[in-house]
Design a protein that fits this description.
Chains A, B: Pfam families: CYTH. 2 copies of one chain form a homodimer. Chain A starts with a strand and ends in an 11-residue tail after the last helix. Chain A has about 180 residues and is α+β, with helices and mostly antiparallel strands. Chain A has a single domain, classed as Hypothetical Protein Pfu-838710-001, CATH 2.40.320.10. Chain A is globular. An 8-stranded antiparallel barrel of chain A has the order 1-5-4-3-2-6-7-8. Chain A is built from 4 helices and 9 strands; from the N terminus they run E-H-E-E-E-E-H-E-E-E-E-H-H. Chains A and B meet through strand 5 and helix 2 of A and strand 5 and helix 2 of B.
Chain lengths: ~180, ~180
């Protein structure tokens, strides 16, 4: 088991320019395609199946307290993960492109969502402790650590595109 | 992934004698203690954490059709499984003792439940195909293949001891 301590931010100017600042800094300008789905979206015991490039993992996460969450992660055969995504997970499968972006001694993970979450770009950074000081890049906007709306499990069930129509997105657009 | 084809029977005279016939035939007269819990009890995507003796596994199962069910099983560290059983699974943890019982060319798995499922003894046998002929031992009683009440995930949520008080057990006792 690992304890995952991370902070999460909306990304500014996410879709405003062809090559936003964060993407210029990315190790991998094409990013890696992630496809993931959930066998359980229960926040006390989330179970995720993820295909990242040609690697697959099954991940169990406990409830988040502060910015810490217990996490159990196991590599699984790619073929198993594909079958689970096609046949077993709660629909829909969530797709995003992940970029690794080094900044000030940390490697940020920037997720550019696709499908019904297109337009949403979120940056996460893993810390050694909850108290660790963190230098924020210009493109890091509002902090959304612990906000359940931005859990990937929630985005799979209640995608960003639907927030607009429900009127609860107006004041919270990441491009504010 | 594996396709799990199995038939399940209640065991007759389960608690009537000190050493019932099936236990006399068991490879391991003490059986093996199983402790298991569920991260998802959804019958379309059950996720089970199991400690069997000193081995631990994480298992994902799809819906049963006929007596076939898709199953994905992964060994995990014992310590991870114990933490998940203690901290993450939907309570309560289900306990049973499993015996391997060879009979007529198959190895039957006989589960003697403990805790709130005490008194329930169930025998399962894995088949090569749904049509395979099967010689039944005398101690195999009513067939309950596909009966959701006898899914271990259900027994964890609605244990056998409670059936009595709900009055839905009278005609279905395994010792009939």
């Amino acid at each position: 088991m690992a304890l995952e301590i991370e902070r999460k931010f909306l990304v500014r100017d996410a879709g405003d320019t062809v090559l936003p600042d964060w993407k210029r800094l990315a190790e991998d300008p094409e990013g890696t395609l992630y496809r993931q789905g959930y066998l359980s979206r229960d926040p006390d015991r989330t179970v995720r199946v993820r295909v990242a490039g040609d690697k697959a993992r099954l991940t169990v996460k406990g409830r988040t307290t502060g910015c810490t969450r217990s996490e159990f992660e196991y590599p699984i055969p790619l073929e198993d993960a594909r079958r689970m995504l096609d046949e077993l997970v709660l629909p829909p499968v969530l797709e995003k492109r992940r970029y690794r972006v080094p900044f000030a001694g940390h490697v940020w993970e920037v997720d550019e969502f696709e499908g019904e979450n297109r337009g949403l770009v979120v940056a996460e950074v893993e810390l050694e402790s909850e108290e660790e000081a963190l230098l924020l890049p210009d493109w890091a906007g509002e902090e959304v650590t612990g906000d359940p709306r931005y859990y990937n499990a929630t985005l799979s069930e209640n995608p960003y595109a639907r927030w607009k129509t429900e009127g609860d997105r107006a004041s919270e657009t990441p491009n504010d």
